[in-house]
Task: structure prediction
Amino acid sequence: MNLFSELKGQHQAKKILVSAVNSNRLAHAYILAGPDGSGRLTAALDLAKSRICQEQEKGFCGECKQCRQIDIMTHPDVRITLPRMKTTKDEEVVDLFKARAKDGITPLRFPGNTYISIDQMREMSLRLSRKSFEGNGYVEIIYDAHKLRREAANAILKTLEEPPDGTLLVLITSRVSGLLPTVRSRAHTVRFGRLTTAMVKELLVERTGVSIETASRLALLSDGSPGQALELSRKKAKDKSKVEDVLGLIFNRSLGDMELATEVDVMSRKLGREGILELCSEMTSLVHDMRRTIAGSQPLARETVPGVIGADDESYRRMEKLFLLCEQRIRANVSPSMAFSTAVVCSRNRGH
Result:
């Protein structure tokens, strides 16, 4: 099997890693640095296969039991450490790995203020002190390594300096500056760049089965990250009903201002601050696309928009500004429910 054949668009990174594998000169530790969705985990798993696979003298076969287990992230000697919260359950980690293995682009990331703890690094050190299950050594992958707490980062310095025989450490990060200098100095850094829009589109069609039109639109918004494009797709589906609910309130002429404010207050309590911020952003994007539709242009962020309801471009322009202002006010610590209610009520009054 061709080395790193699934690594798209990363010619320089691929050249460095292929050379290291073919010359049997792999470093004991690597930092794979670049934006989300640029192929860093794909490269890390291929490095793991290069170390664990016994079917080929150099590289890996991609078909043996070990290679297949590594692909789906279940090999006992290839472990991936993720930032998590104290409340994160092991079952949630397993489910996330399954989702990633299924589509190949789901980000390995939990919401919230996650981090990599010193306890996780101690567990890793304990694993490395024992004989590996298959007897071919260990590969430890630390995902979002810039989220290592300082004490956790210090805890792995000894492992980076004197790794046990047969151990390969791979740190994946989108922010090299977030790693301690002492960590950076003990690993070989390989840089990854953003993918082209065409590559993101190709990966989305290939791995998720979305239409070419949908993939094209998402790729334009993805900033070179297939994972971000997938998250955008999922977020659009989740938020579609919410923005339609808001539009329904704005254009429901049977509701008085007080009734409207009450409905918005109920919605605000359910969403919370972050939910309102996301909804404001989604409303701004939707209204912008509605304005494009009025002007006879294609929407940017979605395939279709709700039917334009008796309002001209000037009305929608004002509505777009109101929801953008709402987001800005909330970030300036104005009451989220008050800011959101003002945006909705004013949008309705100015829209007619």
